[in-house]
Structures are given as structure tokens and as C-alpha cells.
Automatic annotation (TrEMBL):
InterPro entries per record: NAD(P)-bd_dom_sf, Sc_DH/Rdtase_CS, SDR_fam
Record GO biological process: fatty acid biosynthetic process
Keywords attached to this entry: Oxidoreductase
Annotated SUPFAM superfamilies: NAD(P)-binding Rossmann-fold domains (SSF51735)
Family, per entry: Belongs to the short-chain dehydrogenases/reductases (SDR) family.
Name by which UniProt lists this protein: NAD(P)-dependent dehydrogenase (Short-subunit alcohol dehydrogenase family)
Molecular-function GO terms, alphabetical: oxidoreductase activity, acting on the CH-OH group of donors, NAD or NADP as acceptor; quinone binding
Length: 244
């Protein structure tokens, strides 16, 4: 099998990350390296010769460099997508620094540490594409989501700065900001809130909440050569949430 592209995906065991992995492995010229914690959730992907699962907990940010050295030392990537994310609903009065740091560790700090390693020439090709999953809530905010909104906003600033820094190698860095997408993370959220609030959130999306497949084709475009002049941008895909 002749591999032309290697793509690294975090959060590959569920939601948008898994949907993206399922899409990309259909191209036999692409090898997908999926980072996640629960191998049981991706049994359907393990049958693909061009899918490599890396069992890793992104809370262990200090071990990411060793992950590259031990498992990815001979790989040069043409794409990276940070889909892993932690979300919780909690009023500011109950928030602690430790809880905020937990959210930032997965949503932001792990992405920074992965890119710190991935941006080295030994791990990435010139003209590679790095994509960070932010959220419309990174710009618009939402009550009870201080940690989540702040972390997703941080990704926007990270992407803009990084896009300028890596432009000398023509590496593109962009954010994709979905609205509410029907993922296990969203389902968990909906279980925590009253039905009235759930209906209100769904109603904030004029054409309804999304499915993972509504997002992954945009990411596929950003990974490809047809988006070679697109960098430092935040692309919203939210069913109209942000235009009201």
C-alpha cells in the first residue's frame, strides 16, 4: 500500500474525531493515526490497514513528547486535526482553578504541546495543514460554560499566531467552529439540563443542530491541497447559530 498522506487526529474514538477518521480511511493513499483513550469505541476502524490507533490520555501533557519519540518517530505528517475536547456546564460560583485547568489541559494545552512537536521538520511536511476544533461559543459565549468558552476562545488566538509563525514553511493553521453537534459529549450535556433548556439550545440553531458528518467534509477540504491559500481563519459551521 502506497501512503501519500499521514493525518493525526485527536479525539478519534467518538464524535467528530471518529467521523473524520471513518471518512479519511476510505482513501487508501491516506494513513490515519488516531489518538484516544478507549479502543473499544473504534473496533470498526481497527480493521483498516491504514488506521493506526494510539492509546493515550491527553491529560498527560508532559508525556506527549515521548509519544512522538516512541510511536511517531519515523512518520512525517501532512495534516493534524485536534478534535479532542472537554465540556462541562457549571456556574462561575462553583468553578475552581483546578476545574478550569482540567478543561484547558485537554482543549488547549495538549494541542499546543502536540503542535510544538509536530511543527518540527522531522515530524511534518512543508505545506501541511493543522486544524483546531474550536466552537461558536469561543466567540459568542454561553452561560455556565466559563471554562469551555474560554478554552475555545484560546484556540482562536493560538491558531492565528501559529499561522503566522509557520507560514515560512507554508503550513496552514485554521480553526473550525461548529455549533451544537449531536455527539456523545452533547448527549451527556443534554442529560444534565432540563428539557426546556435543551429545547432552547436546539432552537438557537435556525436549521437545527448538526451531525458529525456535517462538519467532517469541511475539515477534509481544509486538509487538502484545494485550501492551500487559506490560513489563520476561523470557519463557523453552525446551522445559523452565529448570525442571529
Amino acid at each position: 500500500m502506497s501512503i501519500k498522506k499521514n493525518i493525526l487526529i485527536t479525539g478519534a474514538t467518538s464524535g467528530i474525531g471518529k467521523a473524520l477518521a471513518c471518512l479519511l480511511v476510505k482513501d487508501l493513499n491516506t494513513c490515519v493515526y488516531g489518538i484516544g483513550r478507549d479502543e473499544e469505541k473504534i473496533q470498526d476502524l481497527l480493521g483498516y490497514e491504514n488506521f493506526i490507533f494510539l492509546k493515550f490520555d491527553l491529560f498527560k501533557v508532559e508525556e506527549i513528547e515521548e509519544l512522538f519519540k516512541s510511536s511517531l518517530g519515523d512518520i512525517k505528517f501532512s495534516g493534524f486535526v485536534h478534535c479532542a475536547g472537554l465540556e462541562e456546564t457549571l456556574p462561575i460560583g462553583l468553578y475552581t482553578v483546578d476545574r478550569v485547568q482540567q478543561v484547558f489541559t485537554v482543549n488547549v494545552f495538549s494541542a499546543i504541546e502536540i503542535v510544538r512537536n509536530l511543527s518540527k521538520k522531522k515530524y511534518s511536511l512543508d505545506q501541511a495543514s493543522f486544524i483546531l476544533l474550536s466552537s461558536v461559543m469561543g466567540e459568542l459565549g454561553q452561560p455556565g460554560k466559563i471554562g469551555y468558552c474560554a478554552s475555545k476562545s484560546a484556540l482562536l488566538g493560538f491558531a492565528r499566531s501559529l499561522a503566522l509563525e509557520l507560514a515560512k514553511r507554508k503550513i496552514r493553521v485554521n480553526c473550525v467552529s461548529p455549533g451544537i453537534v449531536d455527539t456523545p459529549l452533547t448527549q451527556k450535556l443534554f442529560q444534565q439540563i432540563e428539557e426546556e433548556n435543551k429545547s432552547r439550545i436546539v432552537g438557537m440553531h435556525p436549521i437545527g443542530i448538526g451531525e458529525p458528518n456535517d462538519v467532517v467534509y469541511l475539515i477534509e477540504y481544509l486538509l487538502g491541497d484545494k485550501s492551500k491559500w487559506l490560513t489563520g481563519q476561523n470557519i463557523k459551521i453552525d446551522g445559523g447559530y452565529s448570525i442571529q
